[in-house]
Batch of 4 targets.
Target 1
Amino acid sequence: MERALVTRLYRDEASQQTVMLMEGTQSKERIKVTIPYQKAGILALEAHGLNDRCPLYGMFSQCVGELGAAFGSVVLNCEGPRCTHGAISLSHDGRTSWIGGDVVELVAFAMHTHIPIYISKSDTSESEEDEGQPRAKTMLPSVFVDALEDIFSSESDTDYSSSDPSDR
């Protein structure tokens, strides 16, 4: 596992896919992560400080802090050019729990709150072992943790079209 930074977001002309380029801070290895085209705007806006979710991210951080907890880091599990899933750590009373989520949502949150992003390129056997280990339960209200899980696990087939029926 290595800490990584998002260095570039672009559309690959050859494959016509949107790529988030990440670079390992120690190895300087470049990792190309293919992301859904519809979600690229979230990261582009966040990089410029214009993401409309900024107030929501600030509220999350403040609520977690008021509850005596803290966000730790985001870990993305990658297999080749695809990051299959990710999770954000939440610490409370010396215990850590993990909230799974969509890769783009987690990276945008990490960029906004300045928490570290790590890339894990573990093979299937290692990730299966990790899943078998029990995660510590947080003492935060379950309704709050459930809300975070719902927001961070945004479905990749989200309809980004207008919800106003007159626009259709």
Target 2
Amino acid sequence: MPRLDRLSTLIARFSLTVTPAREAVANLGICRAGKDGAMRVSLTPHESGRLGLGCDAITARLDWGGASNPLLAALPERVEMTVETGSETASLLRVFAAEASEMRCGAGPVLDRLGEVIVIRLLRAEIARGAASPGLLAGLADPRLGRAIVAMHDAPERAWTVPDLAAEAALSPSRFAELFAGTVGRTPLAYLREWRMTLARQDLVRGDRVQAVAHRYGYASAEALTRAFRKIHGECPMRIRRSAA
């Protein structure tokens, strides 16, 4: 069975930017090697979080879709990873620190790309640890549920049913529904609807027509999309499209 890629589709949907910033407004920090010979990278993905590093650090502001990004929304208040100085990740952190400190020509795009790699490695580590509370990361960490979630991410337009998704997870429909709700914190079809509406909002902000967005994500009409969109976002999709114009 091929190795499951839990992150690529999610990551591709949200553009990431990184800007050097003071610790007071930063949400990404890299502590240079201390006496123990290790480096540390910290991310506080929510607005309420504060780094509070207490070390010689490079700090930056990372923007990656905010609350609309389900990966960021699923993370705890603080995500940390300790890195041995001789490792591949430590080399990556050192390059990031040098670019952020010197800000030479082209530093902006370099920081964006390095920041994305750093965040992916943090996410991998968080998934490998296993989430302590229900949510998307807990679902992705489960090898059975992860396959069903990735299937929804990859084909949001498909008319998924619980039996279809259960087959992806190689579970009975009843066991799948129970495990999904307990692990992710919502039913499979509620998660699918939220994912579709996240994508629909992105497309509407870009200026796509409501009817086109409806068909893109499996809705029979603009009216059907509007009902689902209003339930999730509390406003009309046409209003989102007009405000983005």
Target 3
Amino acid sequence: MDKRSIFAAVVAAALLVLAAPAAATADVGAGTVRVVDRDVDYTPDKPKEPSLAGSRVDVVCLRDAPWITFEVTLTDPDRQSTGDRAVLVISDGTHEVSLPLGTLASGRVAGSVLWPGAAVSGGVGTGWPGWVYEGGQWRETAGNFAWTRGDVRAWIRVDPELAVPLAYPPATSGCAAPTGSIQGRLAATGTSGDILLPLVLAGAGAAAVGLVVVLSVRRRHRV
């Protein structure tokens, strides 16, 4: 083969390489070959967003005290969450309160907290939202988180957030509200002591009148 033929072959080979739509490189090592196509855009997998799915809150009454029980579960396979402290946020659109629930361990935390405005002593309820003890009597007030007994929204916040249903429990035998009397308890119906007292007096008066009538009738029969 003469020099012209060799030169023509080299030029043809160079043109083929330049005209190729994609160039490839091979990495050889440990008996493996990896081919990388430089004309293909590489798009990494999108990380999965963290989720609080399955987390929940409930309201229970224990010895006249309203408690919020909770179970928070964070699913974060790609470690996208930037927080590890769970908080329960309650709002009526005007007011807002945040209740710390604790620090997540292995993506989970569970427990219970008192309803805002509630208090206990020796495990027994001694304070309730919207009530204040003054002058030996319980009185309703617009303070002490009274708004939490109305229509509220709630959500668990870690990173991300999750809306959860929540409402103040109705009066029951296990979750009584305070009374106007010094004894500090209401019946399960929620009737105040100021209303109960006249009813008791009226009942006692009616019983006394009935007793007088019965005795009078008996005396007439004897005569």
Target 4
Amino acid sequence: MNQPHNPQQVLRVENLSIELPPGADRSHAVQGISLDVYKGEILCVIGESGSGKSVLSAAIMGDYAKGLRHSEGVIDFLGNDICRMDEKTLRQLRGNRIAMIFQEPMAALNPAIRIGQQVEEIFDIHAPNMPAAERRERMLALLDSTQLPDPPRIANSFPHQLSGGQCQRVVIAMALAMNPDLLIADEPTTALDVTTQAQVLKLVRDLRGRGQHGILFITHDFGVVAEIADRIAVMEGGVLVEIGERDQVLNAPRHPYTRKLIAAVPALHPELHAPSADGEMALRIEHLTKTYNVGGRSVQALKDVSLELPRGKTLAIVGESGSGKSTLVKAAIRLVDSDSGHVWVGDTDFLALRGKALATNRRRIQMIFQDPYGSLNPRHRVGDIIARAARLRGLSAKDAWAEAGDLLEQVGLKRDALERKPRQFSGGQRQRIGIARALAMRPEVLIADESVSALDVSVQQQVLELLAELQQRLNLSILFITHDLRVAAQISDYIAVMHQGEVVEYGSAEQVLLRPQNTYTQTLLAAAPGASAMPSVPVAPESTVTEPPRLLRPHAR
């Protein structure tokens, strides 16, 4: 723990309870919460969706969503109870003594105002008498302190001209403008790529090292917690179930829920079993290229991509935003036209098909989409959604409905789900419905496009285990698109790493994760949060290494 010898307590939450409106699934959003934060430390509050962690962080800012009511307890900030403050006092506090770093930097910034002006507005509100020259000088110093390159250029830019990581640094600079005593970071790295996330986490650690702020860091990611926390508070169902030093909570958790969450985190280096390289190829992508015209210039999204997926195996495509992995999927299933190349499903060149032949063969490749909420029609019953896919194979309405019930049972849901609407299910249950719909087409290849990224860690684990079970039972071939190396490590037989439209590394999961040849792959692995601090499973012996599929294996660049 990195607290100084005589730390100053900046926040004390004691027996805090916040009531939910009548008719909610429980009586309180948070109940009986007690915790404290000191200057020079990071307290990470971790929990899944609905745990109450965001309600807690908002309450510390004196902000309650509609229908919520403070019913009991104290939020003591440097000797003053926030629960008793009026709105005028709270406005003077927010952004001044207590500052928030938000999850979505693009939503936190005004798209029509230059960055420098947005930072200076903090001084307009909280230091209106500050001279203009001093405001600009401090604004540039703040941008520089968050390690943004060329602060004058950044100050003159609009948000859309910056990357996600740069926008998040701007939001951090704005939070630091008045040198607050307490920083609340609400999932600030969730929307960032792994290398950008690593840079932002380093910045947060640097802020802790200055000793001027107490930091309350809200997250659902135990990898992030392992990387930055001094202490950890675990929330479940609005209740604080465990709090303690980082190493104690990670390595000797006391509460069953904490143990369950940690066990559900995929290991970056799991016990890997090298797959056989022999057998039939379910999917072959040969020399696929795709170019877009953007603002009058050509951008090559795919550069001569070649990959193979053996039947009954899983190939994970790993890469950051803009790497080309989503374009690869769209080109492979003909959602966008490619410039050149071939996509073989068995012995059929998918890109050469036209008309009825294309329609007939489309069922051989099916998608599980990223968003379990947006990918199902909210107006239709679940049974209709699945049965419609089955009827495309020529089944009668009666047989399709019966098969829909069978498929729901295969994915771990009850048959009575047939009559219900998607809104009546959780995110994990909706993703199971999406899998059942895809299976109704009897596909040879299943493409999962970031299909667990929107799910809590324990639900994510359940879906990954379901996919593995279905693959074994049905001999499915799975192309799994992800930015998360931990997920790739758990589910894949082979891994292809994409960067700027190219496959820069391709091999067995064991080979790529344990002995990466490409510097970009090495950078991704090094940037994975909590790689050294999370409990891990011993890896397989070196002697089990095999080569990836023989054909089209690109040279490591």
